[in-house]
């Protein structure tokens, strides 16, 4: 049987570290280098969070199993203690008892389902909260490239007093935008780590939404990169 491939958190962290060094080499005092440093710190925390998500909480599971057993024993005991004699019951009384018993079984079943799903919901909240942090990071990365317009040069006569400072050469601008796309791609990869072994539908949807967000942002940046290359500015 072919072994299933998995993303390895350590290698992704190593890739982010390498990208951080590359950005520092070319843009040492840029905001992009600072956000990459924050991203690296966040990625290093991911491994510990994923370990918590994937590890079974046996203390909780034993507690739930104990509650379930106690509930079942209590129901059986109550039913046995009633000592009902069917021949003495009228049809109306029997219908009332059956209806009440059915309602109680539904309530107990709903309570048990709630208890059993607590662990999954706690892990789901952890994933969604972590993915939201990554989503915020993606928006910050995108914000860093908003003023990087390949159609406007530093000495453009169209610049105003409040125009953003543009000091990058076409080559540097190309590299800056390329670093942004790499960061966005890695943000999506870190998000996928949370659901690589945790197949909760809500958590998976949250990660898929993050992937769609980063892909869309990267696509817009690549349009700028292609404009630079089409204009033969490099």
Structural description of this entry:
With 234 residues, this protein is mostly helical. The chain has a domain at 9-53 and 120-230: Up-down Bundle (Glutathione S-transferase Yfyf (Class Pi), Chain A, domain 2). Helix content is 75%, strand content 0%. The chain contains 6 helices and no strands. It has helices at residues 9-26, 31-54, 58-82, 91-144, 170-193, 201-230. The longest helix is centred in the middle third of the chain and has 54 residues, at 91-144. The relative contact order is 0.13.
Radius of gyration, Cα only, in angstroms?
A: 29 Å
How much of the polypeptide forms β-strand, as a percent range?
A: under 5%
Discrete helix count: 6
Mean pLDDT: 81
In total, the number of strands is 0
- CATH structural architecture of the domain at 9-53 and 120-230: Up-down Bundle
Q: Give the overall silhouette.
A: elongated
Order of helices and strands: HHHHHH
CATH class of the domain at 9-53 and 120-230: Mainly Alpha
- For the termini, the CA-CA separation is 49 Å
What structural category arises from helix and sheet content?
Answer: mainly alpha
The largest β sheet comes out as:
none
Low-confidence spans: pLDDT under 50, at least 5 residues? none
**Helix percentage:** over 70%
Q: What is the CATH third-level topology name of the domain at 9-53 and 120-230?
A: Glutathione S-transferase Yfyf (Class Pi), Chain A, domain 2
């Amino acid at each position: 049987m072919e072994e299933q491939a998995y993303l390895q958190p350590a290698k992704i962290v190593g890739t982010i570290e390498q990208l951080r060094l590359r950005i520092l080499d070319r843009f040492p005092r840029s905001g992009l280098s600072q956000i990459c440093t924050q991203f690296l710190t966040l990625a290093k925390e991911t491994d510990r969070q994923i370990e918590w998500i994937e590890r079974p909480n046996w203390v909780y599971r034993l507690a739930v199993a104990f509650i379930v057993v106690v509930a079942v024993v209590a129901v059986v005991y109550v039913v046995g203690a009633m000592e009902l004699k069917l021949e003495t019951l009228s049809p109306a009384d029997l219908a009332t008892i059956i209806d009440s018993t059915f309602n109680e079984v539904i309530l107990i079943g709903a309570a048990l389902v709630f208890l059993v799903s607590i662990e999954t919901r706690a892990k789901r909240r952890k994933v969604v909260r972590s993915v939201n942090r990554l989503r915020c990071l993606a928006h910050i990365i995108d914000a860093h490239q908003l003023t990087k317009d390949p159609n406007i040069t530093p000495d453009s006569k169209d610049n105003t007093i409040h125009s953003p400072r543009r000091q990058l050469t076409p080559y540097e601008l190309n590299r800056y935008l390329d670093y942004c796309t790499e960061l966005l791609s890695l943000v999506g990869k870190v998000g996928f780590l949370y659901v690589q072994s945790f197949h909760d539908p809500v958590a998976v949807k949250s990660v898929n939404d993050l992937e769609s967000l980063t892909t869309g942002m990267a696509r817009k940046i690549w349009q700028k990169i292609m404009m630079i290359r089409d204009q033969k500015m490099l």
